[in-house]
Amino acid sequence: MAVTISLALLFGFVLFMLLRSKTLGPGSAFVAVMFGFYLASTGAADTVNELMSAVVNALPDL
After folding, report:
1. Helix spans in the chain (H)
2. What is the mean pLDDT of the chain?
3. Are 56 and 3 in contact (CB under 8 A)?
4. Measured in whole angstroms, how far is the alpha carbon of residue 47 from the centre of its chain?
């Protein structure tokens, strides 16, 4: 759970920075947020969580 919350904050921060630097418009940001929201409610959510856990666990080994 702690990894999931941290990644959510990280991706939220990246989204905020993209909006602030005008690299990403408000409409695109809305689409990105809604895509994440709906992706979390699909069967792919478990796969995405496992993938992110594997990446986080692999980072110390780099």
Report:
1. 2-20, 26-40, 44-58
2. 81
3. yes
4. 13
